[in-house]
Amino acid sequence: MGRYVARRLLQMIPVFIGTTLLIFLMVYALPGDPVRALFGDKGADPTTVARIRHDLGLDQPILKQYWDYMTGIILHFDFGNQIASGRPVRDVLGEAFPVTIRLASLAFAIELVVGIALGVWAGMRAGKLADSLVLIFTLLLISVPVFVLGFIFKLVFAFQLGWMTPNVQDDTNYSQLLMPAIVLAALSLAYVARLTRTSIAENLRADYMRTAVAKGLPRRRVIGVHLMRNSMIPVVTFLGTDIGALMGGAVVTEGLFNIHGVGGTIYESILRREGTTLVGLVTVLVLVFLFTSLLVDLLYAVLDPRIRYA
Amino acid sequence: MTIIDKNADVPAPRTGDAATPLLEVRDLHVEFHTRDGVAKAVNGVNYTVSAGETLAVLGESGSGKSVTAQAIMGILDMPPGKIPHGEILFQGRDMLKMSNEERRKIRGRKIAMIFQDALSSLNPVLTVGYQLGEMFRVHQGLSKKEAKAKAIEMMDRVRIPAARERVNDYPHQFSGGMRQRIMIAMALALEPELIIADEPTTALDVTVQAQVMDLLADLQREYNMGLILITHDLGVVADVADKIAVMYAGRIVETAPVHEIYKRPAHPYTKGLLESIPRLDQKGQELYAIKGLPPNLLRIPTGCAFNPRCEMAQDICRTEVPTLHRVTEQDGSELPGRGSACHFWKETIHG
Fold first, then answer.
1. Rounded mean pLDDT of A258-285?
2. pLDDT tens digits along B53-70
3. Most exposed: A122, A144, A168, A194, by fewest CB within 10 Å?
């Protein structure tokens, strides 16, 4: 097990370098010039532009820029400064990530509890009315785009019923974050529910379930221990990879509810050609993805003893 | 302990009837309601099992032998399964009239079941120690630690080597024979009065089959349990069973004490089964097979269900369902325990 973890951690190094380099090159290839953009519509003095470019290191070859950037991150935990405001990117990240973590964990909790509950409910009654209802409901969630769902929620719960504020004013207030979290969770929730349902319905027919009943175990135990342990294996895999997606993929939801998290910051920095900010954000996200996938693989072995890593 | 005391005055194993049988199945019917119609899996089965006695239920796939066992155990899927009538008396009480909770308490504690495929019948993600210990924790309220000690004890009893080291292993880490031993240990854990073994050796290779059957027979003698052995392997039956019930299309077509059936079958179907066993002294000759296929349970033939495949079939076989006749000697003297559901049983046994 220890050797497996060590090998996985070592494998992360090339993945990390590859992804960050790719992002760095893509940002470099974007049209537009952040320095020229500083001057707005006014024509900029070429010598001033050249000086700023030199100060920022933008006149260096691209691979040298990447090298300087990465050594800064790894050795000094320094993500550089934003070009327009001169703020350290580290501060920008420090502001954006807590907001996104709050939103993502709330969404994750909703997805986990509601998704699994719906899935178990439907799976136990496969082929009956309850099952069809859940399937139709989840199909609806999967097929409606996030921004449509977000607008419907805003319209109904904020403007018509007045239960919630339409936009998030205080992003440390969980009751304000609830509505965006539900919208964010909706899609994954549908997948979790369907995955759980299938898994439960399938394992319900397994031979070991018959054995468990024949042993005279109470129904609670047959379902809670024998059925759930087996049925949760695929669901846990999905939930694990979804953490990464929730952390980085909230661009639309954050924009809709005016939340200044990672998604919003990524969107802004793409618009403003803020390469350093963008690469910094994505670097952290890559790390989050790498670690959650490792965690999922380890958890997988814990849940299913037939899988052993050497 | 009380179980052993109570059984002390019961006749020794393999000698036969006690006053009230341990289990009595009376006119049991089971049907499955499917999209294509009603499949009549069991059509009026009667049998009894006493303490210490082994009843072998023999038949092809689809003859209703497993369904009968599942009905006794109370693990039929209902729906689609349904028991329209019949009684299953366990120690004189009809289990079909009991509440679910009452039946649950009998399962595992008084009647236990051994399944065919031990790999799929054991939970793959729980250790064998946990699955064994669960019996003690649920039925006797033992702590986790006590249950594990008991689990090791049971594994020793079914002769699993190095039980203490292997108690935390998972089912897939055991060989097929060892897994079946764990199934047996689980069934025997609470010293039940009746064990139903549903083809316990079918998934095993021949040498292991013999070991497992010997083990089962030894333990049965030790605990003086009733045993229902469901099988389609006539070879397995001869060594361990006391009496045999042959099933065909959901009915019992012949009952007999074990050795008599080999000598003189009283039903053409049993005769066919016996003749289709490969024999060394007939090496090189073509092996006999019963012609045709088992009947479709949605459309069981009228009259005797076996008539389309029977070499002796006459008109009466196509119109009248034969009852289970008492089989007697040619001079009319009683043959205890023998019965045949054939209009022409006399011709079959004495012909």
1. 82
2. 889 898 888 888 888 988
3. A144
Per-residue pLDDT at A111: 92
Rg (CA), chain A: 24
- Residue B350 above 80 pLDDT? no
Do A175 and A30 fall into the same domain? no
Q: Distance between alpha carbon B37 and the CA centroid of its chain, in Å?
A: 27
Nearest to A216 among B108, B127, B170 (CB): B108
Is the pLDDT at A120 greater than 50? The verdict is: yes
Task: Note the ipTM here.
Answer: 0.81
Assess contact for B45 and B31: CB atoms under 8 A. no
Confidence of residue A110 (pLDDT cuts 50, 70, 90): very high
Q: Is residue B196 within a helix (H) or strand (E), and if so which, with residue range?
A: strand B194-198
Residue A251's domain comprises 93-303
Instruction: Tally C-beta pairs within 8 A across A and B.
Output: 73
Total tally of structural domains belonging to chain A: 2
CB A215 to CB B170 under 8 A? Answer: no
State CA B202 to chain mean position distance.
13
Residues paired with B247 in a beta bridge = B252
| CATH annotation of B2-248 | 3.40.50.300
The CATH number that applies at residue A177 is 1.10.3720.10
Q: Which of chain A's residues have a Cβ under 8 Å away from the Cβ of B75?
A: 210, 213-214
Higher-confidence residue of A164 and A242: namely A242
Six-digit token string for B221: 């003698």
Domains of chain B: which residue ranges? 2-248, 287-350
CB B57 within 8 A of CB B231: yes
A310 lies in some domain: no
Residue A238 lies inside a defined structural domain of this protein: yes
Is the pLDDT higher at B239 or at A124?
Answer: A124
